[in-house]
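REQUEST FORM: STRUCTURE PREDICTION
Request ID: SP-0412
Submitted by: Lab K.M.
Chain count: 1
Length (residues): 217
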Amino acid sequence: MKRWIFLMILLPSFTIFSNAFDLIDESYLSLKEFLDQSDSGAFISLLERAKGILIVPKYFKIGWIVGGQYGEGILLRRDIDTNKWYGPLFVKIYGLSLGPQIGFQSVSLIAVIMDSVESFASENLTLGGSLSVAAGPLGRRLSADYNLDASVYSYSIARGFYAGFSLEGAKVDIDLELTREYYNTYKIDPKEILFTKVVSGKARKIVNLLNEKLIEK
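STATUS: Completed
RESULT:
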C-alpha cells in the first residue's frame, strides 16, 4: 500500500523533456514513425474522422508488483469541417496497475480522439470512464464493418513493433509548465488554446505531416 501511494504522488511530478520545444520535435518524429508503418492504413482512416490527436513520444511502464505508467505529450484539436488544427495543449498521462508484473518498457503512444476534445481541457481526466477508450484497429485498411464505438483509439510502437494499446484507467492532466513555456505566458486557458489558437510556430510541422497523409489517403 505504501508503494502504491508513493507512485500515485510521484508519477505526475516526473519530467521527461527539458523543454516544450524538445517535446514538439520528439512528437513529430514519433508521428512520422507511425505514419511510415506499412500497416498504418487503419490508423490513417481513423485520422480522417478524428476530432483530435494525442501524441506521447515516450510513455514509460514500470512494474514491480505495483505498476506505474507515465508520459508527456501534446494534444491537438481538429475542426473536421474546415480541417483546421488547434493547439497544442501540453499534457501528462499517467496511471497505476496492480497484479503480477515486473520490468520496464518505453513506447511511443498515439491516441486518436473521435469525440469532442473539450473534456481534455479539464484536470485529471480518466480514460475509460465517461470517455470510452480502446486499442486501435490495425491493418492496411479499416474494415467497412468495423464498429467505431469508442471515443479514443490508442496505438503504440516500440523498436519497430506497431500495435494497438490499452489506455483504460489512465489519467490525463494539463502540463501547465510546458504549456506556459510554449506560449510564453503565465495565464493559460486550456479551452481557449484548443478552440481558438490555430496551430502555428514549431508545432506547424506536425499539422503539415498530418494533412499530407490525409491528402494522400
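NOTES: Residues 1-10 have pLDDT under 50 and may be disordered.
Reviewed by: T.R.
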